[in-house]
Amino acid sequence: MEHKYNRIMDAFRSDIESGVIRPGEKLPSIRELTARFACSKNTAIRAYEGLEKEHLVYSVAKSGYYAVVRPASSRGADAGKGIDFSSAAPDPAVMPYEDFRHCMNRAIELYKDRLFTYSDPQGFGSLRQALRRHLADGQVFAGPEQISVVSGSQQALHLLAGMPFPNGKQVVLVEQPTYPGMLRSLELLGVTVIGIARTDQGIDLEELERHFRSNPIKFFYTVPRFHNPLGTSYSQTEKERIAQLAAAYDVYIVEDDYIADLETDHRADPIYSYSDTGHVIYVKSFSKVMLPGLRLAVAVLPKALIETFRLFKASTDSSTAALSQAALELYLNCGMYGRHALNMQARYRSRMEALNSACKRHLPEEARIHVPKAGLFSRLLLPGCLPASDIGAQLKQQGIFTVPTDRCYLPAFPKDNGLRVSIIRTNESQIEEGIERIGRVVRKRLRHKPPLKWDPVIDWLE
């Protein structure tokens, strides 16, 4: 039995990874498998469950098993050759392919008269109603007229960076470090940008107030929850104070809540929920929870910005993809999205727990990392005698892929000596192996250089 079980797994693993079995293709039923391999039903089920644990297949209740992984020939040059701590794209093993296929097919049946014409640049009215209910579950209360469906959160950020605001100010304030996609948009648009330091401990609120008071800040761009690349989140006190300062100094807040659906603390409300003056713009992406290629996100706008945002969006994108909008509407309304988000929370939280445990065991005290309880990212700070770019290059040679955090800074702002560690494309065993190898590389390099003494490494954030 053991021999047949392994033989079944080897056969399907080879066909999936070579592309003989395509992504999303349904695999033979248990009955077909028992006949093909002359095995018992239990052996067939065990083989599929083994492939599922390897994230090569996924199961759909009352339907069967489906392939997940893309053919090796279609992957990037580095994918599949090591442990990927660098990616920000969702794990294909947790994507709801079959559920969303049903929604796509149903959307074509229900909305065929609307799918192949230009729609309202602000988004389907029925989808915005569904989004109003969805956002309210996260303490973002807004009418459908304030909601704009956009082609990914990057589009919303780019439009906001380039359009005029009612306060008449021109400068954008950003956290340092911050999401590099926002920095690219600001640079391309020629916007004047200044930075404010954000650390694992948060932000200096007195310094933030000095910026709001002394500089013509159009808006403050912040990632308050599961920050990219730090992984940390603001406390309730910090979020309340940021909202108060925005109102006091007529500064807008652009709140990038890109993975709100991974939040496990139901008391962790967005900055938007603390503002009653219309100074917070809330942006939420669906790319990290659903299929990134659908390019769907939502911007919740103060009433004073609705018309300007609509005009700027219409000038660059007459309408967001209609089929994606219709499918998302069905996905939200039937409850599939909520169930899938809970699954994502559990999977990624388990990986973060594995990361925390591995870091405690394998990293030397000269390296520092804060591992949050949820989210996708953590930042590994290295001692100054070990440049992050050198360590990253050495790790890459060993099949460990990371991202240096220096790309998350403005050119003139002091940079840290860090690597971003992402758990989105790893599993628990890869995390254990990868962190052990990172610790080994750092220790070996430190033996040849005088170490910079720091306090012990790990803080398990509350």
TrEMBL record:
- Give UniProt keywords alphabetically: Aminotransferase, DNA-binding, Transcription, Transcription regulation, Transferase
Q: Write out the GO MF terms.
A: histidinol-phosphate transaminase activity
EC id: 2.6.1.9
All copies of domain HTH gntR-type, residue ranges: 2-70
Cofactor(s), names only, from the UniProt record = pyridoxal 5'-phosphate
Q: What is this protein called?
A: Histidinol-phosphate aminotransferase
